[in-house]
């Protein structure tokens, strides 16, 4: 089996976002981590494709989450885990120690671990471990005190632009770059799920043009896998996608996430695209040589040509295979004398003429 190894192509950094799809269970979170780390099935070309690169979780401080009136509001929904929205959120929160347990499991499987920290108090988690990256949720791009606190850790930061315009993005970058510039920017649309007409993938091109000093990617909330795959073709270096063990499970984000088969197909297609981009050039690739010989046309006899006959333009036409003279080489055939008998509708080779 051939192993896919990055050479000149850039490897897309693919993040599997757990979000709240763990439903308050460390064991379920670990199952999702296993899904993220799962090797991609061999395909018809016999390639072993690299799985996702990282898993991401989210930590909230419920005292800094919503106004009391909103937290105490009845939450009557099929996806509710509590009588009020506050009880629902509390059910879904894992402790720092539980995050640490999932972190250790992810690292044991070779994955990077990313944390979205939604409040300054959530930095208490860093007493237990250091995530590979910190993620700023779209809603917090204007939460400048939080951005400053996160940036002060010097841990690389990923920003999502889902609720931000250029002004908000520039202000966020101004705060973070006071401390460091290891920043990635993900185009994002905070509509769940995002309707196709609202995705606006051309924002990726805009970000690469105007914020090219940073890594640019795409945090996807669409249904399916086409948008992230196209985003990679447009130059996205990071892809983030919600994933789950079973899209039919209870939970707000489950139905809009990728299940095991969707994960496999998305990662497969992204890794294919990485290999498919190639170079900005037009050339004859060595892989098509056999097809070229089989299918291209060469100068051939239109009818039987006798030894000693001088070959004329009327004596020739073009047939496959393509291992003989091409039409732009006809002067090497026309006007030459046949060395031996040439049957009708056969390729005329160098040894056939004097």
Notable characteristics:
single chain; 354 residues; alpha/beta; two-stranded parallel sheet; disordered N terminus
Care to describe what's here?
The chain has 354 residues and is an alpha/beta fold. The protein is 28% helix and 15% strand. It contains ten helices and twelve strands. The strands form three sheets. An eight-stranded parallel beta barrel has the order 2-4-5-6-7-8-9-10, surrounded by five helices. Helix 6 links the parallel strand 7 (157-160) and strand 8. The model is unreliable at 1-7 (pLDDT under 50).
Percentage beta strand: 15-25%
Helix-strand pattern, N to C?
EEHEEHHHEEHEHEHEHEHHEE
Helix/strand/pairing category:
alpha/beta
Helix proportion: 25-40%
SS summary, helix count: 10
Any idea what the radius of gyration is? 30 Å
Largest pleated sheet: 8 strands, parallel, barrel
Adjacency order of strands in the biggest sheet:
2-4-5-6-7-8-9-10
Poorly predicted runs: 1-7
- Average pLDDT works out at 92
Shape: elongated
* N- and C-termini, Cα separation: 49 Å
What is the strand tally? 12
Helices, strands, pairings?
Elements: E1 2-3, E2 13-17, H1 26-37, E3 47-48, E4 54-59, H2 68-71, H3 85-92, H4 96-108, E5 112-117, E6 133-136, H5 144-152, E7 157-160, H6 166-176, E8 183-188, H7 202-210, E9 215-220, H8 226-233, E10 238-242, H9 260-276, H10 289-295, E11 298-301, E12 316-319
Parallel strand pairs: 1-3, 2-4, 2-10, 4-5, 5-6, 6-7, 7-8, 8-9, 9-10
Antiparallel strand pairs: 11-12
Helix pairs in contact: 1-4, 5-6, 8-9
């Amino acid at each position: 089996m051939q192993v896919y190894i990055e050479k000149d192509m850039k490897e897309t950094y693919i993040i599997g976002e757990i979000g709240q799809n763990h439903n308050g269970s460390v064991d379920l979170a670990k199952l999702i981590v296993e899904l993220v780390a799962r090797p991609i099935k061999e395909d018809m070309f016999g390639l072993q494709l690299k799985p996702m690169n990282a898993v991401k979780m989210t930590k909230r401080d419920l005292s800094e989450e919503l106004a009391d009136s909103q937290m105490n509001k009845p939450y009557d929904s099929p996806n509710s885990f509590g009588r009020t929205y506050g009880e629902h959120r509390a059910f879904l929160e894992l402790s720092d120690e539980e995050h640490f347990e999932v972190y250790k499991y992810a690292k044991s499987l070779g994955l990077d671990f990313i944390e979205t920290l939604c409040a300054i108090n959530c930095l208490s988690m860093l007493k237990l471990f250091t995530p590979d990256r910190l993620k700023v949720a779209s809603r917090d791009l204007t939460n400048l005190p939080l951005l400053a606190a996160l940036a002060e850790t010097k841990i690389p930061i990923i920003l999502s632009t889902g609720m931000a315009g250029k002004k908000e993005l520039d202000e966020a970058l101004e705060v973070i770059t006071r401390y460091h510039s290891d920043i990635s920017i993900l185009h994002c649309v905070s509509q769940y799920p995002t309707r196709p007409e609202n995705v606006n993938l051309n924002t990726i091109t805009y970000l690469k043009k105007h914020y090219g000093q940073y890594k640019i990617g795409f945090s996807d909330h669409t249904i399916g896998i086409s948008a992230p795959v196209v985003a990679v073709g447009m130059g996205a270096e990071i892809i983030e996608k919600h994933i789950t063990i079973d899209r039919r499970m209870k939970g707000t984000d489950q139905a809009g996430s990728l299940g095991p088969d969707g994960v496999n197909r998305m990662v497969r297609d992204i890794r294919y695209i990485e290999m498919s981009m190639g170079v900005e050039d037009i050339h004859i690739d060595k892989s098509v040589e056999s097809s070229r010989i089989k299918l291209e046309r060469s100068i051939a006899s239109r009818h039987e040509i006798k030894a000693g006959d001088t070959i004329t333009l009327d004596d020739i036409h073009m047939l496959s295979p393509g291992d003989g003279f091409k039409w732009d080489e006809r002067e090497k055939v026309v006007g030459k004398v046949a060395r031996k008998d040439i049957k009708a509708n056969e390729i005329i080779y160098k040894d056939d003429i004097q």
